[in-house]
Amino acid sequence: MRTTGKLLYTAKTRTSQGRENGIARSSDGQLDIRLAAPGSARIGTNPEQLFAVAWSACFQTAIVQVARKQKIALPASSAIDAEVDLRLENDSYFISARLNISLPGVDRTVALALVNEAHQICAYSKATRGNIGVTISLT
């Protein structure tokens, strides 16, 4: 586990009662949500949705950083549709994910190069590499 490097930020949260009927709050009060199991009638989000949002936001930022470094203009309409699957096999839960990236107006070869480099520097991509099934596609 890497613990070197300059510490930029520490997220602090408290979750109680898990995904079924839980609540989660950040120490700064900016996040205060109810949790619900996927498909539940209960009002709330689930960990897979939160992970999808977090990873896609990080990946989008990585694309912006790579494009800026290479002096490539990105369209304001660029977006990432993230899908995170909760799976069960042999009584063991795991996740898989798909990131569907849209960079309209960017040459496909250039867009693929941006996405590939972004995947190398995105913190969530690094954290999941080799641990879960991931498909990244350019739409």
Short description:
One of its GO terms (biological process) is response to oxidative stress. This protein is α+β, with helices and mostly antiparallel strands and 139 residues long.
Properties at a glance:
single chain, 139 residues, alpha+beta, N-terminal domain of TfIIb, GMP Synthetase, Chain A, domain 3, three-stranded antiparallel sheet, 4 helices, 28% strand, globular
How does this model look, in words?
The protein has helices at residues 18-21, 47-69, 108-121, 123-128; strands spanning 13-16, 23-26, 32-34, 79-89, 92-102, 133-138. The protein has 139 residues and is α+β, with helices and mostly antiparallel strands. The protein folds into 2 domains: 1-45, N-terminal domain of TfIIb (Single Sheet), CATH 2.20.25; 47-138, K homology (KH) domain (GMP Synthetase, Chain A, domain 3). It has a 3-stranded antiparallel beta sheet with strand order 1-2-3. Strands 4-5-6 form a 3-stranded mixed beta sheet. Strand 4 (79-89) and strand 5 (92-102) form a beta hairpin. Helix 2 (47-69) packs across helix 3. The model has no long low-confidence stretch (mean pLDDT 95).
